[in-house]
Amino acid sequence: MKYTVHVEASESGEFFAECAELGLKSSGLSATNALESLRENIRYNLEYCPCTSLDGDCIQLEVIGQ
């Protein structure tokens, strides 16, 4: 599954990653942290129940901005 993600840095040095398609946002102290947090958030929201356990490798992020 491939999702387009927009990454932006704030003036305070925090990074924000957003997937508008799913309406999800995450933040982190680096772009990498924000993207990994968003990937986990996407995975959590796609799982129908805890037993489905989606593999993180199945989620691809196409990054715009940074």
Overview of the molecule:
- The protein is of the alpha+beta class and 66 residues long.
- It has a single domain, classed as Double Stranded RNA Binding Domain, CATH 3.30.160.
- Helix content is 24%, strand content 35%.
- It is built from 1 helix and 4 strands, in the order E-E-E-H-E.
- It has a 4-stranded mixed beta sheet, covered by helices on one side.
- The protein starts with a strand and ends with a strand.
- The relative contact order is 0.28.
- The mean pLDDT is 87.
Pick out its properties.
66 residues; alpha+beta; Double Stranded RNA Binding Domain; four-stranded mixed sheet; 1 helix; elongated
Based on CA atoms alone, the radius of gyration comes out at: 12 Å
Number of helices: 1
Order of helices and strands: EEEHE
Strand order of the largest sheet: 3-2-1-4
Tell me the number of structural domains: 1
CATH topology: Double Stranded RNA Binding Domain
- Helix percentage: 10-25%
Please report the first level of CATH classification, the CATH class: Alpha Beta
Which percent range describes the beta-strand content? Answer: 25-35%
How confident overall, as mean pLDDT?
87
